[in-house]
Every structure is written in C-alpha cells, then in structure tokens.
Design a protein that fits this description.
This is 13573_t:CDS:1. By secondary structure, the protein is mainly alpha-helical. Helix content is 92%, strand content 0%. The N terminus is likely disordered.
Length: 53
C-alpha cells in the first residue's frame, strides 16, 4: 500500500528527485545483494562446522 502512494507522488515530482530515487533504489538493491551473500556465507560456514564435528 505504501509503495503505491510513493509511486503516484513520484510521477509528479521533478527529474532531479527521480534521479535521486533511482540512485537510492540502486543502493538498496546493492545492500540486499550483500545481505544475501553474507547469509549464504554464514550458511556454508555452519555446514562446514557441522561436517567437522
């Protein structure tokens, strides 16, 4: 629901704000990807530890 109101207000705003928004989206996507990579790393470490025991 919040995403819809955000999108409608974005279409009226100036190009500068749009550019800033896309940069923010890119940063958020990058952070999401990093979080997934860290989670995967933790899982593989946990698997290695359990195999050693």
């Amino acid at each position: 629901m919040a995403a819809n109101s955000f999108n409608s207000s974005q279409s009226v705003s100036s190009p500068i704000i749009k550019r800033k928004t896309s940069a923010t989206k890119t940063t958020l996507t990058f952070l999401d990807t990093r979080k997934e990579a860290i989670d995967a790393l933790k899982k593989s470490v946990e698997r290695l530890m359990s195999e050693k025991m």
